Amino acid sequence: MQDVALLTDLYQLTMMQGYYQNGYENKEAVFDLYFRKIPSGGGYVIAAGLEQVVEYIENLRFSSEDMAYLRGLNIFDEGFLNLLKDFRFHGDIDAVPEGTVVFPYEPLVRVKGRILEAQLIETALLNIINFETLIATKASRVVAAAGGGSVMEFGLRRAQGPDAGILGSRAAFIGGCQFTSNVLAGKRYGIPLSGTQAHSWIQCFPDELEAFRAYARTFPDQCLLLVDTYNVLKSGVPNAIKVGLELEAEGHRFLGIRIDSGDLTYLSREARKMLDQAGLEHARIVASNDLDEHTISAIRAQGAAIDSWGVGTHLITSKDTPALGGVYKLSAEGQKGVFEPRLKVSENISKITNPGIKKIVRFYDRRGKAMADLIALEDEHFEEPLTIFDPIETWKRKTLTDFKTRELLRPVFRGGRRVYELPYLKDIQTYAQHECETLWDEVKRLVNPHRYIVDLSPKLFELRQSLLLEISTKIEEEQTKRLSK
Amino acid sequence: MQDVALLTDLYQLTMMQGYYQNGYENKEAVFDLYFRKIPSGGGYVIAAGLEQVVEYIENLRFSSEDMAYLRGLNIFDEGFLNLLKDFRFHGDIDAVPEGTVVFPYEPLVRVKGRILEAQLIETALLNIINFETLIATKASRVVAAAGGGSVMEFGLRRAQGPDAGILGSRAAFIGGCQFTSNVLAGKRYGIPLSGTQAHSWIQCFPDELEAFRAYARTFPDQCLLLVDTYNVLKSGVPNAIKVGLELEAEGHRFLGIRIDSGDLTYLSREARKMLDQAGLEHARIVASNDLDEHTISAIRAQGAAIDSWGVGTHLITSKDTPALGGVYKLSAEGQKGVFEPRLKVSENISKITNPGIKKIVRFYDRRGKAMADLIALEDEHFEEPLTIFDPIETWKRKTLTDFKTRELLRPVFRGGRRVYELPYLKDIQTYAQHECETLWDEVKRLVNPHRYIVDLSPKLFELRQSLLLEISTKIEEEQTKRLSK
């Protein structure tokens, strides 16, 4: 996260200059970052990316190179460029911790500050949160599909550029993957690495048996052999068993085999039998080959004998839904800390924004299971019994009693200073797992999950309705005036 | 492309140590980087990413930090770590220039060198070429759909991490996009920038008219106004016309409007009429809102009055096909520059590799249209008349006469030294456009395109068949031996 000040859309800078020139330099605003739809047809989302947002904010300054480039564009005036030269983020940021389970319309990040600065950071915040949240969510699905089997992320070669590989690896770990093949991600984030040999290794030796023996000589205690270069059952498994027994005879423990093509259910079951007959019951079977949560689920349902899964393209790109679609919308504007709620109308009801400075409150039942969330105004408190209702299908009501609540947003920056301690990655992974345990299985179903309840508080609902009415009335009046001229 | 040595999969390093420890330190190999399937159901692919590959190779060295990390993993011995410490790439690389039209199974990059080094670079090469080629190809489709209309790429907020935004912007420009919103991509690669204001700008002023006037004051000569914050036809367009006329009265030229929601066909046609009636015939209409090549095509077919297109998520992630799926396969191995062809078998015929050191020859007819490609062995020459045939459906034959040929691979590195001058990005864009012009329209159709002919030379075909037979005979013999024991 170096050289990041220009990681933004040009219109952020043209708007900034516009605010500056029109006397809005000190105007303040609140923006919410949220998504509208859960990816991959799932029932929940795992938030991720906050650590990179923090790094970005802390490194946010325009270098002299940046300044020279902007000046050369000939669209910015010197007064504005001067303001950029000394730019630092001085606003407030609240966010849900990484690993938190979140749902559509809930602000994952809330930015309050001068509109100049809140606007500048929009693009990078979306870029980071959109991607890491997407991959943490996908990983959580893949890991769930794998049951107790471990999942290794090895998508770097298919990732959308180097950062996607590295940040994707991090996000996949948050979502529950246990290993990555990505050495740089291992170095940067301490993610455990895994990896043995490719088909090219096997091809480079006079024959498969010699290739296996060579690998066993170098890594006698981490010997996992790729058995599908020539033929899994006729050649790969028999040769692997031979080498495995040789290793064990020398006092090593043979790790197992990897199958990377063919029918994984059939091949793994046959290979299991062959390994067991040879007395290598402890040898593991690792499977890979264009896997995603649905294929893993189907293969397991057919009784495949697979202990670990290597997942690449589908995970690192979230192939079925390669963008989260998060947005960053103005919810209030003001001056000197006094804010007026703002709302954007749209023909499409799903695109109407929620006005005001908001928080997310999660309601838990006695057993600690999450029952519902309310998006509420910042100063609201809730007491039992509480009746909540769907903001669109308002006849859908539910009364909550005997609940505990938790607010999800946490202060991260105050006046530009960080007030939040970044957790260790391993702790984020554990927290994400705990978060998933608070959800009912119905919400976690891979296909057609039950929709978790996220309602608006009555106060927020009323605010939204009254602003909507106000705006549409105003538009009609203006239109009538125009037509009657 | 700094700190890149660890941008690799762990198994590359474990294999390297294995080669080193098994006396294969000086073994040489040839690898081909190619893809098997054209993304988005298209008929052609635009190669991109070579400049970043060159940067990567030239920056490829292990820092003392990298060395410390690898040592700490406790899987590498000191002899091997010493070899890494002074590691530089000393091999040969040939590649197709960026912007070249390519097809499945054609080597976009060919690496020849010690297997140690050829193996290390696999992951980064795939990562870079896979992504940039994917996006250049998608951009080419979107630009084709837009006809003469210009296309602006503005996907940074939805890109899979910062690099994806920046490299994606570069690749989109190669594919024919004219502008980007991404300021950092503009600075790094000199791509022309574009951008004006967001809905938040409009919402921050007392009303839409005042917001438009404020923008016009700051940017009187680049005034493009976003008209869908409240209501396009009832409010946005009438207010934009008012401000446009005010600008023109002061001697400026009003640029036009942007519509970002609603039915773009209907709204653009109505807006066009309103602008024309007001005497603003020259004002442009820019459209955006979740566009891809198919939506643009459909909207244009219905007579939309749109001059420019802003394309985000679908382009920057190649949403319908978010990975190219390129692979990197061993095709020969040897010693001291003498190579033996190698082949990998597979149950799936599409996964059987092409053995030997190969080149790509493109055959053009008199008018300069591309007729067919041959993947051939490096030392082959072709004379008229030439009969070529499909490597799977071998009865499909075609005789070529009166042709000109061109070889697509160009030397990029020799003995680790760069021998290739990197072209300017703008020239790559022009070259890519020229490349597309050599294709028949049937091959460029967005949906169900005609399949361009890519055959194997007779010599390569025979080599492949004989190696396949050799390997499968050997597997059967070993299996028979095993069973008869």
From TrEMBL, chains A, B:
One record GO biological process: NAD+ biosynthetic process via the salvage pathway
Post-translational modification summary for this protein: Transiently phosphorylated on a His residue during the reaction cycle. Phosphorylation strongly increases the affinity for substrates and increases the rate of nicotinate D-ribonucleotide production. Dephosphorylation regenerates the low-affinity form of the enzyme, leading to product release.
GO molecular function: nicotinamide phosphoribosyltransferase activity; nicotinate phosphoribosyltransferase activity
Stretches assigned to the Nicotinate phosphoribosyltransferase N-terminal domain: 6-130
Gene3D superfamilies assigned: Aldolase class I (3.20.20.70), nicotinate phosphoribosyltransferase (3.20.140.10)
Domain spans labelled Nicotinate phosphoribosyltransferase C-terminal: 358-463
KW Ligase (keyword) present: yes
Reactions accelerated catalytically: 5-phospho-alpha-D-ribose 1-diphosphate + nicotinate + ATP + H2O = nicotinate beta-D-ribonucleotide + ADP + phosphate + diphosphate
The enzyme's E.C. designation: 6.3.4.21
Residue ranges annotated for the Nicotinate/nicotinamide phosphoribosyltransferase domain, each copy included: 151-318
Enzyme superclass (EC): ligase
One Pfam family per UniProt: NAPRTase
Key words, A-Z: Glycosyltransferase, Ligase, Phosphoprotein, Pyridine nucleotide biosynthesis, Transferase
InterPro entries in UniProt: Aldolase_TIM, N/Namide_PRibTrfase, NAPRTase_C, NAPRTase_N, Nic_PRibTrfase-Fam, Nic_PRibTrfase_pncB, Nicotinate_pribotase-like_C
Keyword Phosphoprotein: yes
A GO cellular-component term linked to this record: cytosol
Pathway assigned in UniProt: Cofactor biosynthesis; NAD(+) biosynthesis; nicotinate D-ribonucleotide from nicotinate: step 1/1
Family: Belongs to the NAPRTase family.
Function noted in UniProt: Catalyzes the first step in the biosynthesis of NAD from nicotinic acid, the ATP-dependent synthesis of beta-nicotinate D-ribonucleotide from nicotinate and 5-phospho-D-ribose 1-phosphate.
Name of the protein in its database record: Nicotinate phosphoribosyltransferase
